[in-house]
Write a sequence for this structure.
């Protein structure tokens, strides 16, 4: 990186995965299009990027993901119908899926060679500038400031690669890239090492990398020479490990709650919690839950057994 300050204006969304954990729902529908209340997962991810100042959304797709392209494209027939019926609120809702000034670019990942390969597929579009990577499976409710907004603020100060991390129970380390680091500021630490999906006994700490990254363009050159790693795939973690030897890479413990929507349980938790926050549904849904599971301190487990 040069001494000149740069901004994060591009975000890469790797969305080529098959979503096998949600079959048969994902047989014909991309997992990123699964709705949490009334918006698909990929739209939450895009909105997070846009709120952080990104104006170019780069989707790394596969041949079965046309629904994602259609979702972010204009639908002239629907817009004309809504306008003719005077449903202006719904019309604006449809039009605002991609706000003015934001562009969408699509590139195919021809082979399922892992996250590192998916990011590499975006090289020609990203060019020689830092960029964000957002995994839609990780839905993060950051409250007043989204996870990526928080990370961009840290990048604006530090001007180096930053990984979003959170503390996890060590027994789940085999599901994540795990880091060792030294604290350098509020929620910020300097990464000393990173390892992909270690056994709990080999995990360097309880800090796991989740689906949020800000990376310098040097990562592309390293990905091009990264051999296949765990699962026979080109692992982004391996390239980041090589990047550590050349550049400073920081970890940021974001504020907010993460939902692992790549799992059925995490997806259901997100659906319930987001419904409880929804301006049109919160009151009625809360009332339903009270009736369904009891109130006045009744145990939900007992209510379920009685149902």
């Amino acid at each position: 990186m040069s001494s000149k300050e740069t901004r994060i204006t591009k975000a890469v969304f790797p969305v080529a995965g098959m979503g096998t954990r949600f079959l048969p729902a994902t047989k014909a529908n991309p997992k990123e299009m699964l709705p949490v209340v009334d918006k698909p997962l990929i739209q939450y991810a895009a909105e997070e990027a846009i709120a952080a100042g990104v104006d170019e959304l780069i989707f790394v797709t596969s041949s079965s993901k046309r629904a994602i392209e259609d979702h972010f494209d204009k639908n002239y027939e629907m817009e004309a119908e809504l306008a003719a019926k005077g449903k202006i609120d719904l019309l604006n809702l449809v039009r605002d899926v991609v706000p003015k000034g934001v562009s969408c670019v699509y590139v195919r990942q021809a082979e399922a060679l892992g996250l590192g390969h998916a990011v590499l597929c975006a090289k020609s579009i990203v060019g020689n500038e830092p960029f964000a990577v957002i995994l839609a499976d990780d839905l993060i409710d950051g409250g007043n400031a989204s996870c990526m907004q928080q990370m961009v603020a840290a990048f604006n100060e530090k001007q180096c690669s930053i990984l979003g991390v959170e503390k996890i129970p060590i027994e789940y380390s085999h599901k994540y890239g795990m880091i060792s680091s030294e604290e350098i500021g509020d929620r910020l630490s300097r990464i000393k090492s990173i390892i992909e999906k270690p056994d709990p006994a080999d995990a360097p700490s309880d800090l796991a990398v989740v689906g949020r990254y800000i990376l310098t363009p040097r990562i592309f050159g390293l990905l091009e020479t990264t051999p296949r790693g765990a699962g026979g795939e080109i692992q982004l973690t391996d390239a980041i490990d090589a990047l550590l030897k050349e550049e400073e890479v920081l970890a940021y413990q974001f504020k907010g709650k993460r939902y692992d929507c790549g799992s059925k349980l995490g997806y259901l938790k997100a659906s319930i919690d987001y419904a409880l926050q929804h301006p049109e549904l919160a009151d009625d849904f809360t009332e339903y839950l009270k009736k369904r599971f009891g109130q006045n301190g009744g145990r939900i487990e007992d209510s379920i057994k009685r149902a």
Notes: DSSP finds twelve helices and 13 strands in the chain. Residues 264-277 form the longest helix (14 residues). The radius of gyration is 20 Å.
